[in-house]
Amino acid sequence: MPAITTPPSRRDKPAAVHGVAFILKKATLSALVALVLFSLMIGVRTEAGPTGQLIFWTRFGDLAMMVAAVFGGSILVELLRQAIAKRRGAPLISEQAQAKFTGLGRFLGPALLVFTFLVPVLFYDQRYILDLGILVLTYVMLGWGLNIVVGLAGLLDLGYVAFYAVGAYSYALLATTFGLSFWICLPLAGILAAFWGMLLGFPVLRLKGDYLAIVTLAFGEIIRLVLLNWQHVTGGPNGISGVPRPSFFGIPLTPADDGLAARLGIEFSSTHRVVFLFYIILALALLTNWVTIRLRRLPIGRAWEALREDEIACRSLGINTTKTKLTAFATGAMFGGFAGAFFATRQGFISPESFTFQESALVLAIVVLGGMGSQLGIALAALAMIGGFELFRGFEEFRMLVFGAAMVLLMIWRPRGLVGHREPSIFLQTKTAISSSLVKEGHG
Amino acid sequence: MTSAAADILEVMHLSMRFGGIVAINDLSFSVKRGDITALIGPNGAGKTTVFNCITGFYKPTTGMLRLTHGDGREFLLERLFDYRVSKNAKVARTFQNIRLFAGMTALENLMVAQHNPLMRASGYTLLGLIGAPGFRNAENDAIERAKYWLDRIGLAARADEAAGNLPYGDQRRLEIARAMCSEPALLCLDEPAAGLNAREGEDLSKLLLTIRKDHGTSVLLIEHDMSVVMEISDRIVVLDYGVKIAEGTPREIRDDPKVIAAYLGADEEAAIAVMELDA
User: Fold this and answer.
1) Do B111 and A310 touch (CB under 8 A)?
2) What stretches of A3-155 show up as alpha helix (H) in DSSP?
């Protein structure tokens, strides 16, 4: 079982315990802030009267309740914090538990993979689960693709959806205009997305951190706006419909006489296509995973990680940081393009609405939540984010609230993501997982 | 051998200005092949600026930096793009505040240093991706070299530990080993003994002497620890306010009144250190 190494300086912080006066003071302050905030939001209610004049009434009772709740909550939180602080020394999750989690991960990965392979068999007649599975796998793939840029190279990319869009539109346009098949378009979509990744890379190479993030964000929006406004090519807001479905190596999955079902002599079912799509995205996701794992062990992958750790040291060792960043952007973008092409063939219809900033944010959240750089963590995070979002459907309008709270709690529990430690790419004697407190997040 | 070929690095009329501030003013000195040359001077004398000019991090305002390899190839360092100073001209450096890849293991740090030859061997990733035997061999060679250097700095047992987790002295030596893994012709060390205790300082001196003896690498170092400087340097160049005030063997520098004055004027402790060594 791999041990986790931590820097020595973290444990000897004295636990901060304060008296009643401190707690009361803090709670009063919180209540005061709440009073100021809520006095207009809750205390006064305005509405347009029947003739258009302003009518308002006061709700001081509700206001008082809210302020009291904040006061009480503040005391509770402070007491809780102190209770936790007392057993500081060990972090919230002990080192042993973390190590166990790592050991568990070794079995969890293969188990999850086997389960994923069996999903279409187990849930053959549950279309909803199959569709959800495809959606989760799409985000797993996007997460793994973005992980190359954000997790390995440490370049914060807020416009990843742009490459997803480039891939989707590449396939849709090539297939509807030239009648090319999915299997020819798939690599083309990847290459085109990689090309756009390089184009984005060039202007942002000199930028770091926040500035890089803003420019990539803008790039994502530019791509979306071009797709929206370039009417005669992209169809503008109407999008592209009638995107061809993938064929099973030339054999269409239709009820026609030359369809796969007819040739195999089985009854046609629309589920066949869903299962087929499921395995396509699974294969694509696994390809992404395999390539990433291999690249990490090659000089280019190590250069990406070194870039995340210290760019200046990289330069002093003769590493061309420009090229290294560009390859990271291009590789990440390529997998985004593959995923986009798959998205187009699965939906059969694409429009710029599917490629908003929300998607970029979601994929980035998956990468951050999963633990930057960890393949298993990202897969779990995608499952939790996409699957969990569906799971909370019962909460109706509180869904976002519950979901947000769950994310905040997760980040408190494991600030560096589900799998926060780093596996070394090469070892001599023992493979020792590296604690997340040592691994940098990258700065540009 | 002519004097030009005997010098691995010639710094000629180097000046560096930041706005109105003159950090280096018309500095000329040379580093002899196979020598350990020390660059000393009070704080703010411009030593690190000289290093940054040599290693391509700054573009000098004026002046020329000529590096000559043993086979006669010449490089004008001030014209090379930053990473090419290391890749082509083979100048490696360490940093005043250690810049290891803290989240990577000691071994990985040394592997990253061999990026360029490994990149070529991996067919710029394509051959490596399919696991071509040529790349396997190159990688094994790289691991062997890394092991050799880990042995050299006494870290063979901790090869798989995160670099950021190593004790400070080990990190200093690992950074030197990392620079050496890029097989430099000239090794530039920026205060390698800073923060080391007396025993670690001695280990460092030994390491630098063996680097020169076994690998023929020329060394240029900035150092405040006078015991290290006086013990291992063949030549010393003294800077003050961006101007060279003295150059010579350790013995000559020790007796130079200008050097003592510079240190006395700037930093009493260092001046006393210089004079104590003299006694």
Assistant:
1) no
2) 20-41, 60-86, 95-122, 127-147
